[in-house]
Structure formats: structure tokens, C-alpha cells
Amino acid sequence: MEKEDQKIKHDFARFAFSTLSDQIKQADTKAFGVLSIVGVLTAGLLARLNAIKSAVGLNSTWIILFIISAVLIIFTLKAVIRVIFPRLANNPLHERSILYFRDIVAQPKQHYVNLASRYTNEKLLEGLYIDVYNLSIIADAKFASLRKALILTVLTFAWTITIILLSYR
User: Fold this and answer.
1) Could you give the CA distance from residue 161 to residue 48 in angstroms, rounded to a whole number?
2) CA 39, CA 45: separation in Å to the nearest integer?
3) Within its chain, how far is the Cα of 77 from the centroid?
4) What pLDDT does residue 89 have?
5) pLDDT tens sequence across 38-75
6) Are 131 and 139 in contact (CB under 8 A)?
7) 19 and 139 Cβ atoms separated by less than 8 Å
8) If 0-12 CB within 10 Å is exposed, 13-18 middle and 19+ buried, where does residue 1 land?
9) Cβ(107)–Cβ(95) under 8 Å?
């Protein structure tokens, strides 16, 4: 029974790790989708700005409205970049992950090989759960930034479309 319990614990830890890794990839994919929407909005805004400038010239009201649009786009891009940008930590030696590449390469090769080859099942399981927890922190930060990016995208979209439509009057 003990061996079966140990297998269940290992399987659950691997499942949790895999699930969190997939969620992190999903956040990144969604962020790239938001990035493409922001790119289209920016292109539309710049095209309309160029058309207005060529046709009638810009007055201070239009300049202010376009500046507000640009600021919204910049804030949205900042939120998207926070989703995509990798979270790399430098953990102290006693807190190093057994799976995180930055923690692995921070050690001399032979030191890591010697250390990893001496891990017991319990030590591997503990390390895997530590990595699951660390991935949870990363996923939480990414999804919080993604939520902010989505809200800003909706606001930016509504504002920019309104400005573009008003510019046809």
C-alpha cells in the first residue's frame, strides 16, 4: 500500500506540474492574441490620424484625443508584456529548484549531477511540489496581468473605435 501511495503522490505532482505549465502557455497565447488586437488598433488609429492630417490638418482637440489613445495603447502593451515576459528568479542555493533551468545552470555541472543523482524519492517528490508551488506563483502573476491587459484592451478598443468613428464627422 505504501508503494501505491507514493506512486499516487508522484503522479499527482507530475499532473499538477503539467497542468500549471499548460496554463502558463495558455496565458502567453492569449497575451499574443491581445497583442495582435492592439496592433490592429494602433494601425487603424495611425491610418486615420494620417488621413485627418492630410485632409484638414490637426487641431488641438484631435491631438489630445489621439494622445489619450496612444497612452491607452501603451498601458495595454505594458500589461501584455508583463504576461509574456518570463519570470526568472535567482534562488539561494538551499532553495534551488530541481526542474527550473536557471537554478540548474547556476550550479557547476558536476555539482548538479552529483546532487541530483543522490536524490531520494522523498526529495524528488518534495522538489516537484516546490516547483508546482513556484509555477502557481508564476501562473497567478501571468493571469493577473492578462486580466489587466484584457480590461485595458476592451477600454482601448472602445475608445479608439469611438475616436476613429468621430473623426469621420
Assistant:
1) 11
2) 10
3) 12
4) 59
5) 999 888 888 887 777 776 676 787 788 888 888 999 99
6) no
7) no
8) exposed
9) no
